Amino acid sequence: MRESEVPQDAGLFDGMRGLTYAVNKSGRYIQVSTEGWAPVNYANELAREKLDLNLRLILEKIRVGSLSPLAYHMAKAKMDEWLLARYAGVSKRKVKRHLKPGGFARLTEQQMKTYAEIFGISVQALRIPSSGQNV
What we know:
The chain is mostly helical. Helix content is 52%, strand content 9%.
């Protein structure tokens, strides 16, 4: 696309600007700032809605006692068991165990600190995910 054709559809970046590449008058690729592009904005909004729905479903499972709070923070960070296990230095099987309320309740303070550090939150926030956290 040419430099003059770069879309400027506000929405995706919430007031910030993004960066894309376009062809200038000399035929060379250059970096051009953009406010967004409607189709990309729409696709990202759909993805965001799906993630929010998933977080609400996880919160409900935590409330009824079928999942531990760890599941919420994992989903919010867009992690799976394998990735969290790698960051925490434990086996995937242990992470799966910690996703159950009983396994989570048996975590040591050091294990809680490790998970909290991975998610960039306090141990208290790890224990009690609030429904007001971007859901």
